[in-house]
Write a structure and sequence with these properties.
Elements (H helix, E strand, L loop, with lengths): L5 H11 L7 H11 L8 H7 L3 H11 L1 H7 L3 E4 L7 E4 L9 E2 L21 H13 L2 E4 L21 E6 L6 H9 L5 E12 L4 H12 L4 E9 L2 H14 L2 E6 L5 E6 L9 H10 L1 H16 L2 E2 L2
Parallel strand pairs: 6-7, 7-8
Antiparallel strand pairs: 1-2, 3-10, 4-5, 5-6, 8-9
Length: 305
């Protein structure tokens, strides 16, 4: 394999085919076709273990995911092992999240963000407001980046609008935090948010259950609105919260876009890992969010809001 660099090949292959997602096995097949002599002489080692040369190359490709990203920042992947892995290039993402080992900087841009009255344009405003107000590390989820494998409209009841995590005991001493991690105790809470302009008696039930459907995977689920219309709507939200635990946050657009908790969410002890895995496979924004959580667990690094 003299003169051949596997990482360079995979990076160049993904960039040249950036409109598609590939399994490690598919990339391995192309590698053998493009460079038939790259693994010459390795067949004997494969035969001893009962695996084929294709199996070996597939495992090699899967093992170097982080190296691809260090070479090209827009390369990402989904899946949790070689059988579910997909490698791809993220489009329209000039800068991926940077990581650092200190607390989030409060953005000076929050006051400058302008709302045009549309629901989707609330996402970056709400994300900044939540990060500012609650010290969480948030990511906006663009459902338009998803595969839509379940058909048109399915994402309405599947994708959250904003996701976040918050390290537990972020202000604790390093020794205590290290001890918590080494014992594999709970080191962070996940948050998930459904964003709506306004909630009233005509839409409260739909919006609440949409939040429950899209955000029930997280430790804390919130419906976020700019206004709640009427006392009956407020009572209905309290009743629904009592039964299902979804909280409500109000963004005051006339008061520096300040976020305040109207109804506190009930914390779930466990996250829904199968749902998290499916979201990660379906949506590149969510996959980056998972990578951010992993960066904190593995190396103590936190995304920059």
């Amino acid at each position: 394999m003299s003169g051949f660099c596997l990482v360079d090949y995979v990076v160049n292959f993904l960039i040249a085919n950036k409109e598609h997602r590939f399994t490690p096995s598919e990339i391995a097949c192309n590698l053998l076709s493009d460079h038939p002599n790259a693994y010459k002489g390795h067949e004997i080692f494969c035969d001893r273990d009962g695996e084929t040369l294709l199996d070996k190359i597939t495992k090699d490709i899967d093992r170097h995911c982080r190296s691809y990203k260090s070479h090209e920042k827009n390369i990402s992947w989904s899946g949790y092992d070689v059988s579910t892995r997909r490698l791809f290039v993220i489009h329209d993402l000039p800068t991926l999240p940077r990581y650092r080992k200190n607390k989030p900087i409060i953005s000076d841009h929050l006051k400058e963000l302008v709302w045009d009255g549309k629901e989707r344009s609330l996402y970056p405003i709400v994300s900044k407001s939540l990060s500012h107000g609650f010290g969480i590390y948030s990511t906006c989820i663009d459902d338009r980046k998803s595969s839509n494998v379940d058909g048109s409209g399915a994402n309405t009841w599947f994708h959250p609008d904003i996701v976040a995590f918050k390290p537990i005991g972020d202000s604790w001493g390093e020794d205590v935090k290290s001890l918590v991690k080494s014992n594999k105790n709970h080191v962070m809470d996940t948050w998930s948010f459904e964003i709506k302009k306004s909630v009233n008696m005509a839409n409260v039930t739909k919006y609440f259950y949409q939040t429950l459907s899209n955000s029930g995977w997280a430790n804390l689920s919130y419906l976020v609105v700019t206004s709640i219309v009427g006392e009956k709507t407020k009572r209905q939200l309290r009743e629904l919260n009592e039964n299902h635990g979804v909280g409500v946050i109000v963004i005051n657009m006339s008061d520096n876009k300040k976020a305040s908790v109207f109804i506190k969410a009930k914390r779930r002890k466990e996250m829904d890992w199968p749902r998290i895995n499916k979201l990660s496979e379906e949506n590149s924004d969510f996959s980056l969010f998972v990578q951010g959580m992993k960066g904190y667990v593995d190396r103590g690094e936190l995304p920059q809001n």
